[in-house]
Specification:
Chain lengths: ~110, ~110
Amino acid sequence: MANRDPAVGSVFQALSDSTRLAVVQRLAAGPASVKQLAAPFDMALPSFMKHLAVLEESGLVTSTKVGRVRTCRLDPRRIDTAADWLNRQRELWEAHTNRLATYVENEMGGGAEP
Amino acid sequence: MANRDPAVGSVFQALSDSTRLAVVQRLAAGPASVKQLAAPFDMALPSFMKHLAVLEESGLVTSTKVGRVRTCRLDPRRIDTAADWLNRQRELWEAHTNRLATYVENEMGGGAEP
């Protein structure tokens, strides 16, 4: 369990909401202002800003303010953090099923077949 | 936004908790009984069972009961669902940065260099 990266939990937490999932999907296509990001949602701006705050806290999104416009960007490193964790679990699972298949083959005496 | 798979949200929701993250990590190494899964956690069994229920609802975990022993297994297809979504966002982001790099090169007159 040495690979318990605390950042992974906060990324999954950030992605556990449909609004935040849609915002990440939008930002994957390129940066956008808060106004642009909020437009598709039937939601009060303060509620939307709370979702953005969760995304920023997780590190998935960064933002910069120029004048009165705050622009949000996806930070792909946190996408990688989450994808790497999932890939590791997949590899562990594959290793387990491979060991199981080898064991069953040997038990059935089929292990030496060409 | 055609790739808004509702299953993705429930997988990220299931993984948004450190106990459930640890259970998935344990099950990636192979099936385990509820008793074995619960052992490392300082938590009442009913609370632990609620976490297992969330994992089962998301499809990440399946379980079968033989006699008095319930055995849990990871279903790697839901791991793939989440990894695929993350990989798509990564690809979108790469495509955006590539387009941006091409644009900047052209604007600076460097696009025609060999």
